[in-house]
Structures are given as structure tokens and as C-alpha cells.
Amino acid sequence: MIQYKGYGICGESMQPTINRPKPIAPPRSRPLRKGLRFLAIVGAIALSIFLFDRALWPNRYLLAPWVFGDAIYQVQTAEKVVALTFDDGPDPRYTEQIGQILADAGAPSTFFVMGRHVQQHPELVQTLMAQGHELGNHTWSHPSLKTKSPATIRDELESTDQLLRDLGYTQPIPFRSPYGHSWFTLPHVLKQRDQANILWTVQMNDWKPEEPDVMMALLAPKFGNGAIVLMHDGDGESEGADRSNTVTLVQMILDKYLAEGYRFVTVSELLTQGKPIRRWS
Ligand SMILES: [Zn+2]
């Protein structure tokens, strides 16, 4: 049946309106679709985070060396050798004591010192040398190097190296960046210096400071052939940090793992024992 309804504008003739049966409304699936879309988005985000966390970020030094540079976490070796490393010193309260405990156990280690602290306590560097330890460069003033210019980075590294040379250190000086940070400019400078960034297999929360027993439990699952263990004999950010738990921890590590047949060596010695591992695991 045709009905005429209203008038058109501008002289248009009346338009017939056809009375059609009302369409049947589709089932109410909108909330369901919305829910599925939400779940898909959450799932995609979770998957991205998972892939980033497990696959991309741990492999960043392999996947994008032009961004992150060259870094070493561990050494692949069949030998029961481990490198103990100490950052942020020297500190007059702890460095000599830690160095002596290690020397008494026949465990030469690597001390990544800060130039500023070496300048304040040059005698401690000479003590470390006499105890048979290796000296590493941990910059002059401990800045994050992520946003620093190549000129600033060169200055941080070269001034520290030079001071160690002035104090009579003649061995190669490995490098470890503060906080492990490495981003664009540092890789560029390290490449020019033909150096890798020596990172770590496991870090002890001695900077918190954590209790020695807790740190031993933290160490156990990661401890093994070719491991690089990070501890702190000083503080990069402020003076006066308590490192007495580190002293206790060093003795506990030596007691436990020397009895298990492990040998402790410097980082440079460790690197001669096998293939460097550049993937964080
Ligand atoms: Zn540090």
C-alpha cells in the first residue's frame, strides 16, 4: 500500500512512502564483540611485552650492535672458572679488606674503579696492584652514559685510564659502564677504543644493602662456569655507603665455591678461557 506523507521542499512533488515491514533487529552481539576486541588488544600487548622481554631485549647486543654496542655477560667454558668483580671503589673502608680476603684465598679479581675515587685514594690502587688484582675503568664520575656526547665519554674514560697509568698500572684496562647503560654514543667510542662493555652474569644486591644469606641464595642459580659476578666495594652516587655486607659475602662465596672446585680469576683471564656470551639469560 502506498501512502503520501508530507511535502518536499522547493516545489518537489510529494514522495510516496512505502510501508515496509520493520526489519528484525539483529541479536545483541555488540558487547560480546567489544569484549573479544578488548581481549585481542590485551593479548597482543601481553605477547609484545613477552617477546620484547624474552627475545628482543636479552639479545639486544646481538640484534642491534650499532645501537647498544658490544657487551659480554659471561664466558662459555668447560672450566670451573669465575670472575668476581667490584665496582665504584676504591673506598678506604672496604677495598683493602676485600682485596686482602681475595688475595689470601688466591682469588685475583677485577676492580672497576672510578677515576674520582682513585684520585682521592691513589694508595688503594697500589694496594690492589700489590695484592695481584686487575684494575678496570668505571668512568671518572659515574654518570649514566646514555645521553652523553662522545667527547664527554672519551673524557670520562681517558682521564681514568691515564690516572691508572700514572700510578704505574701497565696491564690492559677493561671497561664497565655505570649502571650497565650503553646507547649509541658509548658503543661508538668503545668501538674506536676496540673495547667491549664488560657486564655481568649476576649482580648481588649489595648496594641495597641486602643480607649476605639472601645474596648467596640469589647467586646460587646463576653461579657456574664462566660467570661474572658483580659486587660493590664503593658507591658511585654518594659517599659513605655501607659495604660491610659485601665483605661478609666475599668470604662466604670463597668458602662455598672454592670447596666445590671453582677457581677465581680476573675478567681478562676469564676471557681467555672460552667464548664470550653476549646474550643475557
Ligand atoms: Zn657503578
TrEMBL record:
Bilayer-crossing regions: 38-57
Residues of the NodB homology domain: 80-265
InterPro entries the record matches: Glyco_hydro/deAcase_b/a-brl (IPR011330), NODB_dom (IPR002509), Polysacc_deacetylase_ArnD (IPR050248)
Keywords: Membrane, Transmembrane, Transmembrane helix
GO biological process, one term: carbohydrate metabolic process
GO molecular function: hydrolase activity, acting on carbon-nitrogen (but not peptide) bonds
SUPFAM superfamilies: Glycoside hydrolase/deacetylase
Pfam families in alphabetical order: Polysacc_deac_1
Name of the protein in question: Polysaccharide deacetylase
Annotated source species: Leptolyngbya iicbica LK
Organism lineage string: Bacteria, Bacillati, Cyanobacteriota, Cyanophyceae, Leptolyngbyales
